[in-house]
Design brief:
By secondary structure, this protein is of the alpha/beta class. It folds into three domains: 102 residues, Probable tRNA modification gtpase trme, domain 1 (Gyrase A, domain 2, 2-Layer Sandwich); 139 residues, Four Helix Bundle (Hemerythrin (Met), subunit A) (Up-down Bundle); 159 residues, P-loop containing nucleotide triphosphate hydrolases (Rossmann fold), CATH 3.40.50. 45% of the residues lie in helices and 17% in strands. A hairpin with a 6-residue loop joins strand 3 and strand 4. Helix 6 packs antiparallel against helix 15. 37% of the residues are buried. The structure holds guanosine-5'-diphosphate. Guanosine-5'-diphosphate (GDP) binds next to helix 8.
Length: 453
């Protein structure tokens, strides 16, 4: 039995029209009680012109009411939507009439929560209702709609099934002795876990935040101090945006500049403090700041000074954090010095090489940056709008899978323990879709919704 609730679904300011929403058992009866002239019941899902009471003196205003019967409504229960004149005293008067009929005001997000509890939508879709309302641009709307249509829930469901299949496979082999997973069986399990972790990464790569600028419209410049980052930034923007110097460590604060790319695109390029071991407090702080930017998931242009020795550059590139390296494109700098060997240029992907001073290779670099952004920017068909909570659960799940895989790679693990660990990882996925989300988290999620949603 769902208590009847009522709320204004439109902003409370004066407007030509406003929408009042009701849900719960008896809400249609409450509506009938304040339609003085109505003799017959309203046909479900058909807007009906009515006169609705708004004042205790018996004054009524014209309105349009649509009723929905279970299970065909948004929440799955009995519900009503009424379009009324948007004058605040009239709206308040109508809400008061409903209260007198025993209908209580809804709490924020209560309609969507009912839809979730009633199994009409999963938690990712419920959350995307709020994201859709807050979306600031068309791409964010498209990304939120995709989640609302169930794309995120579907992908997580698929990943979850793979994880459960693996649990079932392990459980089938358990004979209740203290059995270790190792050798070829361990390798097989490790490779399956790796595949599942990769699927989570791929899903997270489709992340698009609900802000005006898409995630990938920024490129970070990184590399050792003196690799030529600031000089490159200045050459890209065509003015002195960042201070350049032969003294290592000149850039401490990130410097941001907008760069125009052919044929008409633009990107914010951010020059970060150099990649080196920090020796004093300022440098430490600068490095921390750079790392914070680098963890944000954006593409990185990693500068390598072509006048350095090839083996040193290769070692430097391979010492990069794998997550950063995956998103990074190596770029050889200072080729005007003429010291770069052919093998160095071919050793790094695409042989992208420039001189920011002479301008050599700069048009090719800009073209490459444009192509790269086009690849990285989720197109209209792929981006998904994640909430921080969803990202957190998915990242935690991936981390725990990576840990299990590393464990298997270095030794053996008791099968029963492995099953417990994998089930725990699965519960993080279930938390995203709401199959297993603690009540207090649900309270927090729905409290952020606006009234009437
Ligand atoms: P950052 O520390 O990576 O920002 O490096 P800077 O841009 O400050 O450059 C370090 C030094 O390398 C400076 O003395 C620059 O003049 C020099 N430099 C940068 N780019 C080039 C280039 O393309 N060619 C040559 N010859 N020198 C460069």
């Amino acid at each position: 039995m769902a208590e009847p609730i009522v709320a204004l679904a439109t902003p409370p300011s004066p407007a030509p029209l406003a929408i009042i929403r009701l849900d719960g058992d008896g809400c249609i009866e409450a509506l009938m009680a304040i339609i003085p002239q109505c003799r017959r019941s309203l046909e479900a899902r058909h807007p009906s012109a009515i006169e609705i009471l708004w004042h205790e003196d018996g004054e009524a205003v014209p309105a349009i009411a649509t009723t929905f019967l279970p299970p065909g409504s948004f929440t799955g229960g009995e519900s009503v939507e009424i379009v009324v004149p948007g004058s605040p005293p009239i709206v308040r008067g109508i809400l008061e009439q409903f209260r007198r009929q025993g209908v209580r005001p809804a709490t924020p997000g209560e309609f969507t929560r009912r839809a979730f509890v009633g199994g009409k939508i999963d938690l990712t879709r419920a959350e995307s209702v709020a994201a859709l309302i807050e979306a600031e641009d068309l791409a964010a709307v498209a990304a939120a709609r995709r989640v609302l249509e169930g794309e995120l829930a579907h992908s997580i469901g698929e990943i979850g099934s793979r994880l459960l299949d693996l649990v079932a496979f392990l459980e089938a082999g358990l004979d209740f002795t203290e059995q270790e997973v190792e050798g070829p069986r361990g390798e097989e399990v490790a490779s399956q876990i790796q595949g599942i972790a990769a699927a989570i990464s791929a899903l997270l790569d489709r992340r698009r935040e609900g802000r005006a600028e898409p995630l990938a419209q920024r490129i970070l410049l990184w590399g050792r101090p003196n690799a030529g980052k600031s000089t490159l930034l200045n050459a890209l923007v065509g003015r002195e945006a960042a201070l350049t110097s032969g003294d290592p460590g000149t850039t401490t604060d990130p410097v941001l500049a907008r760069v125009l790319l052919p044929p008409g695109g633009e990107v914010d390029v951010i020059d970060l403090a150099g990649n080196r071991t920090a020796t004093d407090a300022v440098e430490k702080r600068a490095l921390e700041l750079s790392l914070r930017w680098l963890r944000g998931g954006e593409p990185v242009l990693y500068l390598l000074d072509s006048s350095c020795r090839q083996e040193d550059l290769e070692a430097e590139w391979h010492a990069l954090d794998p997550d950063i390296r995956r998103r990074a494109m190596p770029l050889l700098t200072k080729i005007d010095l003429g010291s770069a060997e052919e093998s160095l240029v071919t050793a790094f992907a695409d042989g992208l090489a420039v001189s920011a001073l002479s301008g050599e290779g700069m048009p090719e670099l800009k073209e490459k940056m444009g192509q790269w952004l086009a690849e990285k920017t989720p197109t209209a068909g792929q981006g998904l709008l994640f909430t921080e909570r969803q990202v957190g659960c998915l990242q935690q799940c991936k981390k725990s899978l990576d840990r299990i895989r590393d464990f298997l790679a270095t030794g053996s693990i008791e099968a029963e323990l492995l099953v417990v660990d994998l089930k725990q990882s699965h519960s993080l996925l279930a938390e995203v879709t709401g199959e297993a989300t603690p009540e207090r988290i649900l309270d927090l999620i729905f409290a952020r919704f606006c009234l009437g949603k």
